[in-house]
Amino acid sequence: MAATFKGGYHVDDHKSLTNAKPTQMLDGCDVHIFPLRQHIGAPLTPCVTVGDYVYVGQKLADSDQFVSAPVHSSVSGTVIDIKQHIHDSGTMIASVFVENDRKYEVYKGCVPHDYRNMSKENVLELIRDAGIVGMGGAGFPTHVKLQPNTKVTHVLINGAECEPYITSDHRYMLEEPEKIIYGLKVCMYVLGLSDGYIGVETNKQDGMESLKNSSEFNEHIHIVPLKKKYPQGAEKQLIKAITGRNVPAGKLPADAGCVVINATTAVMISELFKTGIPPVIKNVTVSGDAIKNPSNFKVRIGTPVKVLIDKAGGFVSEPQKIISGGPMMGITQYNIDYPVTKTTSSVLAMVKAPKTYDEDAPCIRCGRCVSHCPMHLMPYKIADCSKKGDVDTAKDYNALECIECGLCSYICPANKNLLQFIRMIKPDVMKKVRGEAQKNGK
């Protein structure tokens, strides 16, 4: 029986557009653009200047802060500019522009390592210097996640890929399963664990079989079938499904004795130790009913998204909406000049937007947002607080526990965009919580 959690919803996955299509390797383009914000944490400072020649895997920017992650070049060539450029967040971010000489010469410091012959501290240092982060979209630095302050008993690979349309992790399972398991083994080594777990939704049975048939698979690797339900891949829901544990309110997975690593992140860890090269190439799904040939691509980071769309045959019709990420948690884009970053998992183009919201629609008190909320919140109440600017009550309704999965907006029969209002109030609630903590000397 497939493991799952209470709440959630069966969302049409639309994965048949690309899940059986092999991943195609794309050539690099003339100029690659590297935003200096591809992670959660401290901002980066460029360590190259205009005119410098750089190699594949060479560091372009870094920070001396613990919670941060450097950015590396995915091509060899010359730095031609460092300036503000559009980012998939919709903001302008300082970015390094590298003119690709198409030689793809690898930086001399990129050499393979056998983690089994290294200290745990050196493994963590290598992961940190490689700039590995949550590659599924979160962008949290992996070296920080692998140094929990509490005892960890479980390390879980998130292979749920519950967002509709996206099949990039699925293709890794089918085409490079050994890399997912090898990356998991590195994490097991660092955390001092003998067993590791990989959660995969049941709509990827072939992915589970591929993992089990991998040369890296053994009795200490456990493939856990997960019920096909959104948001099965959210950290807290994944932990509940696989271990039965609840992550306490306001706490992290480590407080439940767990560390969760995305499947693509595990692949990048494997690439690092087997080749010495940091994250420079990743799988990206290009899909949606506005795309002529929905496809999976291996893409050099820094490639403008418009290149991917062209390689997928372009638009069959003018899209109403372009999304970076999935339709539930992704960010709507107003142009396609932004580049692929470490956290880009998909690009979607829709002839017709999945849903149109009515901000003035009255709540009909049906309770669907409450019964399906994976965090067991009352989304309509928090949204009402947001409209009124009532931060105190929003805090009482645990607004900060919202994982922003978007399910409440998706299932609302009144077409209210509840998530948007919850997102608007959360920063104010966070500010209040921090102020109270400082006042109390915590």
Can you tag this structure with a few keywords?
4-stranded antiparallel β-sheet; 2 domains; 6-stranded mixed β-sheet; 13 helices; 442 residues; Rossmann fold; alpha/beta
Q: What's the story with the biggest beta sheet? A: 6 strands, mixed
CATH topology of the largest domain: Rossmann fold
Radius of gyration: 21 Å
Question: Outline, from the CA principal axes?
Answer: globular
Number of E-state strands:
17
Determine the CATH superfamily of the largest domain: NADH-ubiquinone oxidoreductase 51kDa subunit
Give the C-level CATH assignment of the largest domain.
Answer: Alpha Beta
> Average pLDDT value?
95
Count of helices? 13
- Assembly annotation: single chain
Structural class by secondary-structure content: alpha/beta
What CATH architecture of the largest domain would you give? 3-Layer(aba) Sandwich
The helicity comes to 25-40%
Strand content: 15-25%
N-to-C SSE string, H for helix and E for strand: EEEEEEEEHHEHHEHEHEHEEHEEEHHHHH
Number of domains: 2
Q: Order of strands across the biggest sheet?
A: 1-14-13-17-15-16
Low-confidence stretches: none
